[in-house]
Amino acid sequence: MSHAPLSTLAYLPKAKKNMHTAHLIRAVTLALLIIGWEILARSGLLLRDVVPSLVTIIASMGKLIINPLFYSNLSITSFEVIMALAIGSVLGIICGIIIGSSAFLSAAFEPYIYYMSPTPRIIFFPVMIMWFGVGSPSKIALGALSCFFTMALSTADGMRQIDKVLIRVGRSFRASLWHMAIKIYLPAMRTPILNGIRLGFGTAVITALLAETKLSNQGLGFMIMQIYSRFDMPTLYALLIIVFILAGLGNAVLGALAGSQK
Amino acid sequence: MVDDACASSHQRNKNGGVNNLDRFIAPSFCHPLSHMSTQISSSPHLAHSRHDVLVVDNVFKQFGGPLAPVIAVDHVSFGVRQGEFVSVIGPSGCGKSTLFSIIGGLLTDYEGEVRIGKDRINGPHPAVGMVFQEESTFPWRNVIDNVAFPLELIGVAKSERMDRAHHFIKMVGLASFEKRMPSELSGGMRQRVSIARTLVSQPKILLMDEPFAALDEQTRLLLGDKITQIQQELNQTTLLITHNLTEAVQLSDRIVVMTYRPGRVKRIIDIDLPRPRTSDVVSSDAFGHYVAEIWSDLREEASRGMTESENSAAQVHAHG
Amino acid sequence: MHMANVMKNDRLIPMLCGALCVVGAFGVLELLLRFDIINRYIVPLPSDVLGAFGRIVVEEDVLARCRETAYEMGVSAILVILIGIPIGAVLYRFDSLRKALEDWIAALAAAPIVLAFPLFLVLFGRSSTTVIVMSIANGLAPIILKTTEGLMSTRPVLINVGKSLRLSQRQMFWSILFPSALPLIFTGIRLSWTFVLISVVGVEFLINLGGLGQLINDLAERYDMAGTYAAIGFVILVSVVFFVCLEHIERVMGRRA
User: Fold this and answer.
1) C-alpha dihedral over A127, C63, C124, C139, to 10 degrees?
2) Chains meeting A at 3+ CB pairs closer than 8 A?
3) What ipTM was estimated for this complex?
4) Which residues, in sequence order, are CB contacts of C145 under 8 Å at separation 6+?
5) What is the pTM of this model?
6) Are A2 and B70 an interchain contact pair (Cβ–Cβ within 8 Å)?
7) CATH of domain A65-260
8) Which residues on chain A are in Cβ contact (under 8 Å) with B93?
9) Which CATH code of 3.40.250.10, 3.40.50.300, 3.40.1370.10, 3.30.1370.10 fits the domain covering B7-127+203-311?
10) Are B124 and C163 inside 8 Å of each other by CB?
11) pLDDT tens across B19-70, in order?
């Protein structure tokens, strides 16, 4: 303590005070949003039902949760997301390992993946429909494509971060590429891979849902469009909120998983 | 040689006339009693002369709560006269930087007073120019725009700004680098830019906090030369905070030696080396004597500091 | 910044090899299709697609479409900066506000806002406004966060220089804080505008309105496969060029620090 720079001692007590204020601000912001919303809803300023009262929204949420249709659609979307994540991740990891392990391959092919990834991937949907039809497979394919990019880049980057020593140890035992992959690369890259999966999950969810809204006859995205076409605003809000919460939960769980591996 | 130095100390005062101060703070080899730690701060009135431009008067600063008070600056008083170069030297952790912040007006919560002429300092004062230890050039401006910055703030016209900036850039020896960006310069050059930027507003007092700490010895000596040159040319009143012994003796007219925490004035020493000075002075005998002298004071304080930090590190380790 | 290094270094040979491989793959595809090994109704001939490029430029007036998309992109891009940077600055200025809201904004960045597009359709109708509002919503979070981060990472000594020169709050912000934060702000702009572009084209596609996104939609609905592929390729080209430019500017900005 005597070695700490004198100037920092002056600032320590302030930090605690700030946290309390922060919680207060969050509570106030939330309250303001809720109150503001209710006022807007009841004022009739906007077209009827565009901003429905929170009470009706919550009521709709209740109705949704007990609606078997919701669950059947949820299971279809979940299936699509999980499949997309699985396929995209596996392909992405394999590709990432191959590309990341060699500077030559990385220079040759990684730019394509890197510069293709910030494109609006939803536009590939017509292609997927041509190849896989109108049902779930096309959504899975699109989701897998999205995940692939994320995963490949994340893995390739992780490969480059691996301590060179570990690789040399493997080579000194003359391990085959397969063994190298399983016993050295994969364990060393738990964190970037898990992080990639977390990001991939987010992408897969968005892609699958958007594809469903575009062209589908099942799934949560389809359900959203149905509700929209009925102009059932409270239920639309309700369903969107539920989807956001589920996506957030999934993200949080994967994030915790990724974090815990450190 | 020693006698010469002793005799001349009584004629030293640049403003003419011996003042009270000399009797209390002459070099140690003149006074048999001077080996004792002199608490100048006990007589604040006598510590300053009427020719002082900067007066530090009984400054006291304490950090930490009532449960764990740490006294950084403990009733420190001294003065700096017009055109004088004074160094404050002390071991790390003795509160020098706190003193720097107080004089510079960045720290206003303290007891005691700091005065520039008649004004009391309670915030950054226009007459005080600060040069910081860390690199402080603006990386997004080139050299001349950096140096002209203070003039920009007070609304000086562009051509005059550039002229004045150019004058000081030349003074620090960077004339051919005006249009360069700081990232293209070395650390020493960047510090020179910071110094030029501070000088351009012609402050009454130049206040520097270990500006050469990050530089190597040779660069330091050469920059020291530059500083001396500039200081003599402008008759710039300067207060330098440093932990570097040779630097302090090379550059200063007087040195204030501080104790380890709590920081008090241990001694104020006149440096009676001839002016104009160059870095060659480091090889003279007198130089060596002064350095040895100050080191004997400093060593005591520095080793106290070292022991304390070793103890606290051991404690942390034991509980850790 | 690994990609930047790859681009900078003289990795000509591997890049050429990679390019050759890609072209070669298309060549193989062409052959497989010509020999009917792969069904032509699913995948058009690469040569047809190339031909379609020319066709869509002339017949579909691709340039007008580009302009449409560019307009939406431009408006969104400018607004997202005008809204995002001040919010970022406010969060920097008020520490408790920042601690309270920073996490929420980061969560917003990860949230699938684009899913709520039916909502936006109801609120703003089927118009460019919907596209623009959704794109702004998607692009806002990165720029707010990076602006705050940039301002907070100003070196304390530079702030002290400002204090010692007795700068007013406004002078402090514009002559020290903001220039110091610029490199990170540009990173935020790159991230933000990337999301904005993706959103603009994506939403255009989804609601079948506007420029390039709608073009793809149109061609797909007409079962003009070669045209669809060509349009998709065109969009990819545009977004790659855009992205490369953004990265370049960001790098230049970063060097100034």
Assistant:
1) 70
2) B, C
3) 0.82
4) C88, C102, C105, C106, C109, C188
5) 0.80
6) yes
7) 1.10.3720.10
8) 2-3, 6
9) 3.40.50.300
10) yes
11) 433 333 334 333 444 333 333 333 344 445 557 888 899 999 888 877 888 8
